[in-house]
Amino acid sequence: METIKNIIATLLVGLAFLGAMLIGTQANAQSWEGTHIYTPVHTKHFSSNPLYDNSRLGSEGGSEGFLITRSSNGLHFTMGIMQNSYGDYSKYLMFGFNLSESDTSQLSIQLGVADNYGKAYLDEVNARLMNRYLPSTMIENSRIPIMTATYKVRLTNLIGLQFNLSPAFINSGLYIHI
Fold first, then answer.
1. Is the pTM of this model over 0.85?
2. Integer Cα distance of 86 and 119 in angstroms
């Protein structure tokens, strides 16, 4: 079973790398193609946990850092450093695709991995689930899988709002299209 978990983890990293190679380099300010820099502002979890970092304006972690997304042909490759739910800084690596897109909004799904989530393993329920389903390499390195639905709303051709919905939280912030 451990071998299968490690193979799946390796395949996910390989998929993220392949996604990075597939993303094109042409950008158009009127389309969603190109590079977006996202800065989080606020995170709210669907259930409370005393380990969450209750920081400014009631945000439960996830209110500092940045993510850079490269988008082309409906595919997205995202990486960056952002504060996690527990107040620690994590590196994120995600690959995704569009579900819907118009001139003013975009809905996409991303899958990936984040590191430095050691505090997530201190919660008994989280630890039980992660130890059961995740490969030992992820657990030993305090990594967790990430899945989000991202909704972007364009305010101008270069600036917009971004909402990230995961099974555990909703996170909102601003993006800049460069």
1. no
2. 7
